[in-house]
Amino acid sequence: MIVKENISLKSYNTFGIDVKARYFIEITSVDQLRQSLQLKDYPPIFVISGGSNMLLTGDLERLVLFLNIKGKRILWEDDSRVALKIMAGENWHDLVMWCIAQNFGGIENLSLIPGNTGTAPIQNIGAYGVEIKDVFESCEAMEIKSQRLLRFNGQGCRFGYRDSYFKKEGKGQFIITSVTLILRKKDHVLNTSYGAIKAQLKQKSVTKPTIKQVSEAVIAIRQQKLPDPNILGNSGSFFKNPVLKQQQFNKFSTNHPEAPFYKLEDGTVKVPAGWLIEQTGYKGKRIGDAGVHKDQALVLVNFGKASGAEIQQLAQSIQNDVHLKFGIELIPEVNIIK
Ligand code: EPU
Fold first, then answer.
1. The total number of structural domains that make up the chain
2. CA 296–ligand 1 middle distance (angstroms)
3. Ligand 1 atom closest to residue 293's alpha carbon, by position in its atom list
């Protein structure tokens, strides 16, 4: 285990923000993780994995642990299902592609989501009607203070929309080391309810899609709308879609009957933040090297040399203007690291 000093984190975060880590360790095993948590005489730790959901706003005077533990294996399988244990450092999209090649179904709608598998449960990644919670069996996480490895099942993770126990009570206390998913080997349950997927499949004249074809449709949709972080720095959706109580929604929709919305089961209503941001005139806007993507207003981008503080400033002015115009509070989905 090598402790490096003053390492640039530019290539470790998908926003491509150039800040330095005072100390830096690459972790490739659970044992190494335990050992590095036991190190004395270092500043507090900061964990980075895929770096796809964070905005770094300054140099980190911390011990940065780059979680890069690889590996996956089948725990058990029967006629129709397979339980797959995946180590935290496995790239999520590579995992999805591998599963599709094995004909393991359930995560095809989550194709092309950046980041690593270990961080996927933290914000319960979701897209096109599917969330990781739908195929989740359990995860193992190391408690930072005791270095004990604990197992959390789906209930223990308390999943919600872009939310889990690890963002609430458990925040900052655990490092997820592996995730176990239960996937289907046959009789795939496809979710093609999302309008854009239907349209994409129709365009390709696919009537009975396979999991591969659903994945290809999702990839095509995402590539049309979302910038590739390898080309243009970004962290996907910067804000969560706000969820309004019925009364607040009624008032909002009376004033803005043209606004898109989705009713949720509990009577609350989700309004797309991308629409709100576009209406306040930010879509495609650029201030220095910080900007709002031209095809999806929910995505903030780094055109090259933006600092985290500049992107944060842009985010703040979007929040202010959306609040002024609609009375709705936008909450960042991305973790802003000070
Ligand atoms: N819209 C606009 N202008 C925009 C963007 C969106 O008017 O610039 C409106 C459109 O009317 C569209 C609606 O917003 O119908 C919804 O847009 P989209 O289908 O692109 O989805 P989203 O609500 O903006 C969410 C997730 C995405 C996920 C997609 C598909 C959140 C915060 N984001 O975006 O997740 O891929 O749905 O399921 O829930 C991510 O988390 O990084 C991410 C990309």
1. 3
2. 7
3. 8
Cα–Cα distances (Å) from 247 to 175, 319, 329, in that order, read 39, 21, 15
β-partners of residue 107 are none
Instruction: Note the pLDDT tens digit of each residue in 64-120.
Output: 999 999 999 999 999 999 999 999 999 999 999 999 999 999 999 999 999 999 999
Is the C-beta atom of 296 inside 6 A of ligand 1? yes
Model pTM? 0.96
Ligand 1 lined by 131 (C-beta under 6 Å)? no
Clarify whether residues 82 and 53 are in a common domain: no
What is the 8-class DSSP label of residue 193? -
Q: Exactly one of 90, 140, 310, 333 is catalytic; which is it?
A: 333
Instruction: Write down the residue that tokens 């780094």 correspond to.
Output: 302
Mutate to test the pocket of ligand 1, among 119, 223, 237, 333 (most ligand atoms within 8 A of CB): 237
Please indicate whether residue 158 is annotated as part of the active site: no
Q: Is the pLDDT of residue 210 over 90?
A: yes
- If asked whether residues 206 and 267 sit together in one domain, one would say no
The domain that holds 23 is classified in CATH as 3.30.43.10
Contact 259, 286 (CB under 8 A): no
Task: With CA atoms as reference, report the closest residue to 68 among 23, 116, 20, 34.
Answer: 116
What distance lies between CA 155 and its chain's CA centroid?
20
Query: Do 218 and 76 fall within a single domain?
Result: yes
pLDDT digits (tens, 9 = 90+) for 216-270: 999 999 999 999 999 999 999 999 999 999 999 999 999 999 999 999 999 999 9
Show the domain range for 58.
4-67
Residue 333 in contact with ligand 1 by CB distance below 6 A: yes
**Known catalytic residue: 237?**
yes
Q: Are 299 and 227 in contact (CB under 8 A)?
A: yes
pLDDT at 1 over 90: no
